[in-house]
Amino acid sequence: MSWDVCITADSGAECTDASEGSTTRNKWVATRTYQCIYGDQHAGDGAADVDDIAAIVATGQQVNASTYQGPDGASRPYMFCKSLSAKRDKKARHIFRVTAKYEEVVNGFQNDAAECPEDLTDIEPKVSATVGRYDKVLYEDYSSPSRQCYYMPAVFERYNAPVTSPQATLQLTVEQYELSLPFEEMMRRSFLVNNAPYRGRSAGHWMIQEVQARDAVVKLCDPLAEDGFVELECVLVTYPIVLSDYTVGNYEAGVGVKDVFVGHNTAMPLISNYYIEGGEQVKFADNESGLGRIGFIDNSGDDITHNGRPNYEVYKTTKQGSFSFLRA
């Protein structure tokens, strides 16, 4: 099921005096209301499985992270979301009403230059963090004692799909204003992996996922303008960036198991019906029944089934490049 989210007509804004001493300030406050419909709006399927928090998440708004953007596309970069509340419709349980409140303090007479950006790069990017997941392949489960879980014991055949365990990973969302972003450049930056250290991690750890951009209008300081401001047409770009610490352990004779970094690349397990012995291909077989079975091999084809896990071949399946366009 999915969400259908729209902005209602009863959103509004007001401007109040927030002067302090000799500094004249105006404080803008805005309210935006969303109607969030879950699943089939006629049947309300699955409505009992979602709550108010899910409706808030569906709006895409985040407290102290999201900025206000008017219906005309004009954005106020210092007008941040300060609260989010949701209420379920009593008569239609699949419909929620989410209210977002925004606040902004702007300097009416330009007494404090720090309050007013003169360039897009003066507007600090907004960074938020969430926890995502990836699935780790298991060869032994977490029972005590553990049990092998990669093949069917009765017939020694590998399962059609691997047994996996959910693992936590970190996802950052960076929002920043840019003068322009052509479609071709959006595609180039999407699924790009860092080729140099970024946020304390070496090359290969971070991947930018699908880049998003929308038109925006930002007010910048201009002392030559009649009201002290100019409006600049630009784009607000969102970069979802996912961290991967994924490694595999490869066995080396005389050395033991060594961690091999995979990151966002692809690692294929060396699970086979055959192994190499004396330069010949030998079929794996169960010691008791003699039935053919699968086994683990190292990167040279040697039998390492006794290790309880296979070696991997790691293939480079991602493109690496510079993250220099990110300002956070």
Structure, explained:
The protein is mainly β and 328 residues long. It folds into 3 domains: 109 residues, Alpha-Beta Plaits, CATH 3.30.70; 118 residues, no CATH class; 74 residues, no CATH class. It has 2 helices and 23 strands. The strands form 7 sheets. Strands 7, 10, 11, 12, 13, 14 and 23 form a 7-stranded mixed sheet that branches. Strands 1, 2, 3, 4, 5 and 6 form a 6-stranded antiparallel sheet that branches. Strands 8-9 form a two-stranded antiparallel ribbon. The chain starts with a strand and ends in a 7-residue tail after the last strand. About 3% of the residues have low confidence.
Low-confidence stretches: 106-114
Measured as a percent range, the helix fraction is under 10%
Strand count, sense and barrel status of the largest sheet are: 7 strands, mixed
Number of discrete domains: 3
Separation, N- and C-terminal Cα atoms:
34 Å
Integer-rounded radius of gyration: 28 Å
Give, in order, the helices and strands: EEEHEEEEEEEHEEEEEEEEEEEEE
Annotation field: number of helices: 2
Report the count of strand segments: 23
Mean of the pLDDT scores?
A: 84
